[in-house]
Amino acid sequence: MSGHSKWHTIKHKKGVADAKRGQMFTKLIKELSITARQGGGDPDMNPRLRTVILKAKAANMPKDNIDRAIKKGTGELEGVSYEEILYEAYGPGGVALLIDILTDNKNRAAAEIRNLLNKGGGNLGAAGSVAYLFKRKGLINYDASKYKEDDILEVAIDAGAEDVSNDGDSIEVTTSPEDFENVVKALEAKGFAHSMAEIVRVADTNVTLDTDKTEKALRLVEHLEDHEDVQSVATNLEIPAGFVMSE
């Protein structure tokens, strides 16, 4: 879990620092639209939509944007039709990559993702070659400078969380997908404001590479996540303690 957690923290801080809010909103709009299209626009009847709304609110997306994206998905407003694709791939050093795509042009997305992988020292894998290494988990992050781990632990475990960890900067609560919403609500009710809350894919076990390959693998993940059609990239790379990305 630690490799994913550290990379998630790096991504979160980088996203704030780079102010990529517009790109983030574009990806969230896609996810809101397709989730509403598949399961309906009522969050009370569509658990997956409730989760995406949580993520959008954590990113400070305006309510009007959220409502408009949902209405495009349900057909109340005219919108683009998106297709979900899951690419399984390998990066430098053989690290596993699971790439979630939402696109309105499957052929274009496939060509561009393959090109990014090739440039970054990776390659596409066969169907089933990587997905089995990952499980879906709920991850909820809290600022460790604002809250005490023990206080969060008590509420989270009572609400059904699987684990609580602290890397010094953030306190991370791990849940099953089924218990995710209950845990978020329980912590919110006690006044704990999360900095990130979403359901992601987490590797069962992580692999360790040397510093050079770790850097290259994370650069590849970074470039993939910058692509407009990529919703998320999961990796089984273990990030060493004290590792810092070069400028």
Kindly list the characteristics that best describe this protein.
single chain, alpha+beta, Arc Repressor Mutant, subunit A, Alpha-Beta Plaits, 3 domains, 8 helices, 8 strands, globular, disordered N terminus
Helix-strand pattern, N to C? HHHHEEHEEHEEHEHE
| Number of discrete helical segments | 8
Distance between the termini: 26 Å
Biggest sheet, spatial arrangement of strands:
3-1-2-8
CATH class of the largest domain: Alpha Beta
Share of β-strand residues? 15-25%
* General form: globular
Specify the CATH architecture of the largest domain: 2-Layer Sandwich
CA-atom Rg in angstroms: 18 Å
Q: Could you give a short account of the major beta sheet?
A: 4 strands, antiparallel
CATH topology name of the largest domain: Alpha-Beta Plaits
Q: What is the count of distinct domains?
A: 3
User: Would you tell me the structural class of the helices and strands?
Assistant: alpha+beta
Overall number of strands: 8
Mean pLDDT: 88
Q: In terms of quaternary structure, what is this?
A: single chain
Percent helix: 40-55%
Poorly predicted regions: 1-5, 15-19
CATH H-tier superfamily of the largest domain: YebC, transcriptional regulation domain
What this model shows, in words?
By secondary structure, the protein is α+β, with helices and mostly antiparallel strands. The chain folds into three domains: 2-74, Arc Repressor Mutant, subunit A, CATH 1.10.10.200; 83-132 and 206-235, YebC, transcriptional regulation domain (Alpha-Beta Plaits); 134-203, 2-Layer Sandwich (Alpha-Beta Plaits). Helix content is 45%, strand content 21%. The protein contains eight helices and eight strands. The chain has helices at residues 2-18, 21-39, 47-58, 63-74, 106-119, 149-159, 180-189, 211-226, and strands at 83-90, 96-103, 123-124, 134-143, 163-166, 170-175, 196-203, 230-235. Strands 3-1-2-8 form a four-stranded antiparallel sheet. It has a four-stranded antiparallel sheet with strand order 5-6-4-7, with helices on both faces. Strand 1 (83-90) and strand 2 (96-103) form a beta hairpin. Helix 2 (21-39) crosses helix 4 (63-74) and helix 6 packs across helix 7. The longest helix has 19 residues, at 21-39. It is globular, with a radius of gyration of 18 Å. It starts with a helix and ends in a 12-residue tail after the last strand.
